[in-house]
Each structure stands twice: as C-alpha cells, then as structure tokens.
Amino acid sequence: MLYLDNSATTPTHQEVVDAMLPYWTDVFGNPSSKYYSQAVDAKIAVNQARQSVAELVNVKADEVIFTSGATESNNFLLKGIAAAHSSRGNQIISSVAEHPSVLETLRYLETQGFDVIYLSVDLYGRIDLKDLERALLKKPTVLVTLLWGNNELGSLNPIKEASELANQYGSFFHTDATQVIGKVNVDLEKLPYVQFLSASAHKFYGPKGIGAAIVRKDDMGLSLKVTPLLHGGAQENGYRSGTHAVPLIVGMGKAAEIAYSRLGEHIKQLVKLEDRLSKLLMKQFGDVIHFNNDKQNKIPGILSVQFKGLNNEVLCKELAPVMAVSTGSACSSSKPSHVLQEIGCSMEQLRSTIRFSLSPYQSETDLDIFLDL
Ligand SMILES: Cc1ncc(COP(=O)(O)O)c(C=O)c1O
To answer: Tell me, what is one Gene Ontology molecular-function annotation carried by this entry (predicted)?
Structure first.
C-alpha cells in the first residue's frame, strides 16, 4: 500500500523511535526535578532537542517553546499576542485560506473585541501584498498571521515581504509553518520581522502530540511577551506550563536533526517525485483531470487534482486498499474544503478533488502503481 497522505501526517522515522526509547523507561525523570541522574539526563535531552529544533529554523535555543503541536502553538500565539499587546491596536490581519486552528482561534478573538480582516486569495491560495498594505492602512494592527505554505495546494505565501510590511506598520508577524518545515528552507535569521512561528513534529517524521512555538527576542535581547494559554508550574520560561513530554521532545529533536541535515536531498527527491506523479496522472487520466495547484513557488510533493465526474470520497475509499490519499486537509475532512472554495472551485469541482502528498523516502518506482490504475 502506497502512503500518499504525508501532509496529514508522516510515519515516525525509525531513528526517531530509537532515540525516544530510553526516555520512556531508563531516563524517565521529570526534567524540572534536580540532582539525580534520571532528572538531570532528561533535562540535558530536552535542551539538546531544543537546540536541534532551533537549528532547523535558525533561531536561538531559548526562542523555542515546546507545545503539544501546531494547533496549540497557533492558539497560544494568536491569543497570547492579542492579549499581551492589545495596546498596539485591536485589528488582526490573516487570510481566508488558513488552517482551521488559525481561523477558529481568530473567530474566538472576534468575540473578544478584535476586528479580524481575512484577506482573499488568488487562484492558488496566495494573498496579494497590496491587499495586505490596504488592510494595514485601515487602523492599528496588533498582528498579521499568515500561512507559510498551504496544506491543500502547497502554495507559498510571500512571507518575507508580508513580514516587512507588517513591521513597517508597527504590527507583529506570525506564520503557521507547519507544512513547510523539512520541505522548504526556513531560515528565520534571514527573516527578522517574523517574530512568531508554529511548527509540528508529526509533519516531518517526528512523533504526534509535540510541536513548537517560536517566540523571538526583541532588539534589546528580551523575549517578546505572550500571555500563556496554560498556567501552572511555569515550565518553558513561563510560556507553557506542564511537565515536559520528554520522549516526544527528544523525538522532535531527532526529527529536526534529520530534517535539517537532509533538507537539500529531500527537496530534490520531492521535486522529482512530484514531476513523475504529474506526468503519470497526465498519461493515465489526462482528459479527465485538472490540477488545482500552481506548478511553481510551492511546497514540493503536494498535488491537488480534480478527477472530473468522480466523487472524491468514493475514489478515496476505492483506492484505500492500494493507496492512501485524501480529499484535502485531515482536520476538516468532513466538510467541503474552504481553501478550494476560496480559490473559486465550484462544489462539483471540490467534491472531485484528491490531494496527493509525497514523501522523500519514496522512490520513483513506488509510483509505478499508477500505471496499473
Ligand atoms: C497548516 C497546518 N497548521 C496546523 C496544523 C495542526 O497541526 P497539529 O496536528 O500539530 O495540531 C496542521 C495539520 O494538519 C496544518 O497542516
């Protein structure tokens, strides 16, 4: 069975599983405890993992806050920035094509008195910088939050330019980078105005239930203020209370190490696989398919394809014995895709769309399965 739903989640890499193993049994201490080896060694491991995650996105280790995943990171950052910095303005700017963990958090913030502008997107799900500037001109904005790479179409937003614009108008900038990590070069040293970022380990061959929120320091070297979501023992410098999930954190660190060291090779393989899959689909189904995704400026390895006249749910079910594919985002699989609606697809078009998401650990010959379909 060929697994082509890597944007929903990825299998945990064997080296990651191996790295985690001792932390369930031998090194089981609470890293906040002191003196004895189980605790001290657990703390060392957490700090090593923090260093690896920091390296992956090129920030300092103390700018990494471990969370339970990108949903929590998005909730924590959006609510926490809004609460801590509302004096900057009560407007928040985002886009209509965000992940539900951003959209639903923004809807909550609307009930708390924030005005949210949802920028529309083009045919491929990207915002227009002119729209962003127009929105920033309207009134003081506390935060601009934009998806780096779209989970259904793969399209990349102009993060550098958008973060510079936000800074020009005195607004903070956050990006949900969940889908791009491990597939695109994420170098925050080169993006000084991206102050906040969300990430999740299970999208880059790490375990589920662990992620990170990046909170950068200001020009004075002080950590930016974010009101915590979880109050308690003040772990993670008070940003995120709760006993550290040491095995999962170690797993995320190992996954980050692998993603960092193989980034170039993985990107090359994903580009190659995407090209081969596009060609195979054209060859087998050329007259009945349409690609929703752009061919360029995208996350490699994600294809969104309409199979005209077919129902995507039926197609996914029929294909299930031979391949795992999805109708779009796993987080909203029961609802028609809001992303495809926003790029102008009709109900019929979105009900016939399948998302294929590839893995750099697959080979071109794995895709030969399409020749038999
Ligand atoms: C863009 C994006 N943001 C956030 C999430 C949520 O991540 P997690 O499963 O870690 O909560 C996902 C998961 O599909 C995603 O694709």
So the answer is: metal ion binding
